[in-house]
Amino acid sequence: MEDSSLDPGTWVDLYGNYLYNFAITRVYDQMVAEDLVQDTFFSAVKAIQSFEGRSTIKTWLTSILKRKIIDHYRKNSRSKEDAILDNDTFFQTEGILKGHWEDEHLPNDWTADVSLEENSEFYKVLQSCLANLPDKMAASFTMKEIDDFSTDEICKELDITPSNLWVMIHRAKLKLRKCIERKWFLPDEKMYK
Amino acid sequence: MNAFQKLYIRFIKCFIVPCEQASFLLTKKEFEKLTFREAWRLRMHMIKCKYCRWFEKEDAILTHTMVHFQQKIDKNNMPFCLDPKKIEEIKRSLQK
Description:
The complex is a heterodimer. Chain A is mainly α. Chain A contains seven helices and no strands. In chain A, helix 1 (about 10-25) packs across helix 3 (about 55-80), helix 2 crosses helix 3 (about 55-80) and helix 5 (about 135-145) packs across helix 7 (about 160-185). The N and C termini of chain A lie far apart (about 60 Å). Chain B is mainly alpha-helical. In chain B, helix 2 (about 20-30) packs across helix 3 (about 35-50) and helix 2 (about 20-30) packs parallel to helix 4. Chains A and B meet through helix 1, helix 2, helix 4 and helix 7 of A and helix 1, helix 2, helix 4 and helix 5 of B.
């Protein structure tokens, strides 16, 4: 008898949700994530002969999805070449405080609010903030922080230089902290748009 | 901000980098070893500047949260849910 896990009909129920979560925590868009998952199953069914049983089906499907996510990043970063040139200023540009934090971007003492890391509402706010980042910025940030790719790999896939990458990740962090503060810590504040 | 604070800031800026560079060095540090000069200036800045210390903490909270939830997903504890309609759609498309 054939192993039931080799029957593609059962894969969607078994691994669909896992793959979807894997994708959406890397591309931050429901539609894109769903399409990537669908694509993954499609390619897997076509390539089922190449599955040699050395890994589990789940690992194998995940590796296909990983490749598709990176291809998605590449496609997006090609189409929006100027994503690095956003014009937010986080630091004062003149006067005696040149280079100091702009008032509205001043970091805050978040640690008063403990166990943020466990809070899934906080995580969803974080996800929505990541979704608002320019594509290339979000891609480089995710590759670095979640998948721990090396600088060389990120630069190769996204076609940027290392110093470009550092600037982009730095700006990503600045934008994220601002967004989180607005949406999580000060949701009622009028002064923020 | 009063006159004394302004004077104080002018004084410390003579030998310490501004927040813009310091926070960038925090990011750069994750990728490669800082030069001695950079590391020294960053350390001096972090001693003086509570905002950059907070920035470092905020950044740690953000990345920890991302990694933490990723580990949860690996343990089959899913924060998001694939739309059942989409599941049916994928199943149908696979049967063709």
